[in-house]
Amino acid sequence: MKELKYSRQREAIKEFLATRTDHPTADIVYMNVRKEYPNISLGTVYRNLTLLADQGEISRIRVGDGTDRFDPTTKEHFHFVCKNCGSVIDLDVDGMDDMAQQVSRNFSGSIDGHVTYFFGSCKNCIDMEALQKCNS
Amino acid sequence: MKELKYSRQREAIKEFLATRTDHPTADIVYMNVRKEYPNISLGTVYRNLTLLADQGEISRIRVGDGTDRFDPTTKEHFHFVCKNCGSVIDLDVDGMDDMAQQVSRNFSGSIDGHVTYFFGSCKNCIDMEALQKCNS
DNA sequence: AATCATACTAGTAATGATTACTAATTTCGA
DNA sequence: TCGAAATTAGTAATCATTACTAGTATGATT
Predict the structure, then answer these.
(1) Which single residue of A3, A36, A112, A114 has CA 20 to 30 Å from B84?
(2) What percent of chain A has pLDDT over 90?
(3) What is the Cα–Cα distance from A74 to A72, expressed in whole angstroms?
(4) pLDDT in tens, A49-80
(5) What's the rounded Cα separation, in Å, for the pair B36 and B29?
(6) pTM of the model
């Protein structure tokens, strides 16, 4: 792996991400880091997020809505995606670690891991809908 | 839901997809249906694939590589994605239906379902790699 | 069979997330 | 301090997908 040199921008990106639990997109990271570094470019944000993910310092989340999100932790856990507002929420599930093993038994390739996320309506959106019905 | 009218193009798309088990992309569908309808446009292919998926006649697969794939069956099953060649293969797994229930217990929103796919190296790529080592 | 509203098509332009390129700047070991 | 190599800002390019638009096909009603 190529040698990494320090950069203030990369540090700022990492520090910002560490303050968030809502899995921001590259664009949101960009808008926020710009408060400290007004000249930072979106390309720099993308490159560093990708770099950090490759180093295993953060993780990239793909939930198939066309926009990647980033998570300051690499500890394995699952996500919930609200199909209304698009928000991504951490889940705490256990007993799903042996899935890969289970699948391996009748599969001739080699399985490295799996991607799983749940979808539905988050509490906020459910409450909102109830409120609107109430007012009509 | 809006009323659907018959179209030869849509029928051809559906029929082509039915012959495939390798989850082709929209572009591959396009290239093949073009043999029968040389003037069909890529937009038409996309629109009809989306339409058919909305109707529940086919399903759209998102494995986060930036390109959607399509599956002629809507029966729930899991997929394996080869991280080398990108091929998508059907899996036969059971005992994973109660996952959503399990997660629901300590989650305040409502869960409709989940997306799961496995990744690793397919048999072809493993064999290929072994062969190259052998020849060097 | 002719009419007509409406869905559908081909072709093309637009969108939006991400990556690639390039000249100038920063980092850091020698 | 010097210099090789990584990094950056700014911009252009890419690529999958969607949107638009004028013309065509479908199918129910006469």
Answers:
(1) A3
(2) 67
(3) 7
(4) 999 999 999 999 999 889 999 999 999 889 99
(5) 11
(6) 0.89
Nearest nucleotide to the CA of B7, by C1', is C8
For A85-89, which contacts have Cβ atoms below 8 Å and span 24 or more sequence positions?
A85/A122, A85/A124, A85/A125, A87/A22, A87/A122, A87/A124, A88/A22, A88/A23, A88/A61, A88/A63, A89/A122, A89/B109
Which chain A residues in 57-116 sit with Cβ < 7 A of strand C?
66-68
User: Cβ(B118)–Cβ(A113) under 8 Å?
Assistant: yes
Element (H, E) at A113: strand A110-121
Q: Which domains does chain B have, with CATH numbers?
A: 1-75 (1.10.10.10), 77-136 (3.30.1490.190)
In this predicted structure, the answer to whether residue A128 has a pLDDT above a threshold of 70 is yes
